Amino acid sequence: MAETTNAFEMAQRQFDHVAELLKLDPQVREILRWPLREFHFRIPVRMDDGTIKVFQGFRVQHNDARGPSKGGIRFHPAETIDTVRALATWMTWKCAVVDIPLGGGKGGVVVDPATLSTSEKERLARGWVQQMWKNIGPRQDVPAPDVGTTPQMMGWMMDEYSKLVGEYTPGVITGKPVGGGGSLGRTEATGFGVIYTVREAMKHLKMDPTQCLAAIQGFGNVAQYAAIGFTELLGGKVVCVSYWDREDRTPYTVSKADGIDPRFLMSITDQYGTIDKNKAREAGYAIEPADAWLSKEVDVLIPAALEGQINAESVHKISPRVKIIAEGANGPTTPEADEVIRQRGIFLIPDFLCNAGGVTVSYFESVQNDMNFYWPKEEVLSKLDQKMTAAFEAVLELAEKEKVYMRDAAYMVAINRVVKAMELRGWI
């Protein structure tokens, strides 16, 4: 994330801008600008060498007017309370824009998970639940995996919660392993959701996906399945992905002019998204500087890494050929960059619409946990496609009707739904 970008200030600026457009009551605005609840806590963990190390943990519940808070838990060395606040806020709008009955939450721990052994990760995951178990639950707040956390960690967290409350409670956490209360299709959900919205944008712009090229920033779960979706579902080509190399602590772009093979790259990528450079070179891939993805001559840009990547400076590197920016990451574009994108007439699919596939299938997972009945993968992905397509159409319709930028339209749809729920519950 760019040093000058405070994610929460960015989230508030985006909200304030749309609050003006909607002429929101100042009292309502004051409720929605800030999280309703925040938890800051310390997690003592006994390390494998017998010493005790203390980690800083967070959970933010932004708004639960529409249902239990929902949002991932990040294990990241640069985690801050402002990042968690921003992500919790965006989760409120994300759940509302895809019209699922949940509110926004987010959690985190300041840690580099790559420095922990498997047993240390388990103790830290269980320690997080021990601090938060009275304030999470299927009807209160439902965490999920995010950057640096995995389905296995969610399994441990669900187990710890079930022990503490004295009953098997799979619905306390989503993103669990299949066979341990998880849903089929969850792994692909966010990346495929990005591509469903790209497909709809291409229909709107009358673009032929089989003739289109894409550049993707990132090669974690979202980017991997966005790359697979773009090539296998749409028939287009992805010319590059970028990744963070853990060994030399440097980001790179891996590219191939005639199109990458995302499944091959996944086969040489470790669990933290680091691609084996040597194997990539042997297979004919070029290794380029970190920001090379941004200036590629492509039709679609998919930032699917961290916040603030397209900013006032970097936005000018975008090729004139680019027609669509699909925000696979949360908050990848700063308000200053938005102005340039708007002026250039690039069609933007805003983050909390574009990457809502993950939370949508997390919601499906909760429903299946409640029913104790699990759907086949095809049914999950079909329901996801329907939800994402309906959400895209609602935002596009409002954008065209009100003649506003797609990000503003998505905010307007989401904020209106949250305000309506607050009115119906008598909060305002």
From TrEMBL:
Family annotation (Pfam families): ELFV_dehydrog, ELFV_dehydrog_N
Record key words, sorted: NAD, Nucleotide-binding, Oxidoreductase
Protein origin, superkingdom: Bacteria
Sites marked Important for catalysis: D146
One function term, GO molecular function aspect: glutamate dehydrogenase (NAD+) activity
Binding site for NAD(+): T190, N221
The name this protein goes by in its record: Glutamate dehydrogenase
Xref: InterPro entries: Aminoacid_DH-like_N_sf, Glu/Leu/Phe/Val/Trp_DH, Glu/Leu/Phe/Val/Trp_DH_C, Glu/Leu/Phe/Val/Trp_DH_dimer, Glu/Leu/Phe/Val_DH_AS, Glu_DH, NAD(P)-bd_dom_sf, NAD_bind_Glu_DH
Glutamate/phenylalanine/leucine/valine/L-tryptophan dehydrogenase C-terminal domain segment(s): 183-426
Family in the record: Belongs to the Glu/Leu/Phe/Val dehydrogenases family.
Gene3D superfamilies reported in the protein's UniProt record: Leucine Dehydrogenase, chain A, domain 1, NAD(P)-binding Rossmann-like Domain
Binding residue positions for substrate: K70, K94, S362
Active-site residues per Swiss-Prot or TrEMBL entry: K106 (proton donor)
GO BP annotation list: L-glutamate catabolic process
